[in-house]
Design brief:
six-stranded mixed sheet, 6 strands, 2 domains, alpha/beta, single chain, Nucleotidyltransferase, domain 5
């Protein structure tokens, strides 16, 4: 019964759908006066190099704003909020959201907190989902059935709106509980350091983390990697759509040992791209 009452009262926080530039500017001023906000994003990132940002959800103690990014002219107007070091921004899995925000607005988010990192640090366990953390700290069950929803479709369904709102509804409450525990144990700065590392990693060009993961060392390897990245950016498709990682060595061997260029045409399955690649590397 207590659980039901909790859910009932929390759900009364007003939802505001922001889908016009004048309305957006009005809420930006209101957000600039806040000390703490919760942030989440909904996006599509399946067939493109850059994510397609659909929705930014922002919670305060009094309201939840659902900001329809497809209806706004410039998300760079978020600068006074994202880069304001006096506003604490609370996330779950901060690197994912910060990466999407950096790619789509070219803005770096400052003064962040991650409830997932804090929970992992406190419990010394694996990273928990948002739903599990909400239940752990607030004893509230939330529906996550819209996780793989089509966020580029308009209008939003009622389920999508509820899902999106719930993704930020509990962030500030959990942050306050975690902060109290961390400060009591003198661990708050430790968690902040971990969060800052994740924010830094999320605020880089996308190719940097991919290059580190592939562990390419030679000059020609890096040149091939950047050629693929640039072509993917130019066409706004995932780099794997140019060619998959597993073909790196095969392509390099083709150039290194002067093997027939048929391999290149077979791997890229695009004559124009294959010719570009061959011309780029013929003197290497």
């Amino acid at each position: 019964m207590i659980n039901l009452l909790k859910s009932f009262f929390i759900k009364q926080v007003p939802l505001v759908l922001v889908d016009s530039d004048p309305m957006f500017r009005k809420i930006l001023y209101k957000l600039s006066l806040e000390k703490t906000i919760g942030i989440d994003t909904e996006f599509d990132w399946r067939n493109t190099y850059f994510p397609k940002l659909s929705l930014i959800q922002i919670s305060t103690n009094e309201k939840i704003y659902l900001i329809d990014c497809l209806k706004l002219n410039s998300l760079r107007e978020f600068r006074p909020i994202f880069e304001n070091k006096n506003i604490k921004k609370v996330f779950h899995a901060v690197r994912s959201d910060v990466t999407v925000l950096f790619c789509t607005t070219n803005l770096k988010v400052t003064n962040c907190f991650d409830i997932q990192i804090a929970d992992r640090y406190l419990s010394k366990s694996d990273a928990k989902s948002y739903a599990k953390i909400v239940f752990k700290y607030l004893r509230i069950k939330i529906d996550k059935s819209e996780t793989n929803s089509d966020w580029l479709r308009r209008p939003f369904s009622k389920n999508q709106i509820n899902y999106a709102a719930n993704d930020v509804r509990f962030l500030i409450k959990i942050y306050k509980k975690q902060k109290k525990i961390l400060e009591k144990r003198n661990l708050y700065s430790n968690v902040n350091n971990l969060v800052n590392k994740e924010v830094f990693l999320g605020s880089q060009k996308l190719y940097i983390s991919r290059l580190k993961r592939l562990k390419l060392e030679s000059k020609i390897e890096k040149k091939l990697f950047m050629w693929r990245e640039n072509k993917a950016i130019e066409k706004n498709i995932p780099p794997s759509f140019i060619f998959k990682d597993k073909y790196f060595k095969k392509i390099l061997k083709t150039f290194e040992y002067n093997i027939s260029n048929e391999n290149i045409f077979y791997i890229l399955k695009n004559d124009s791209l294959a010719n570009e690649l061959i011309n780029e590397f013929k003197e290497c």
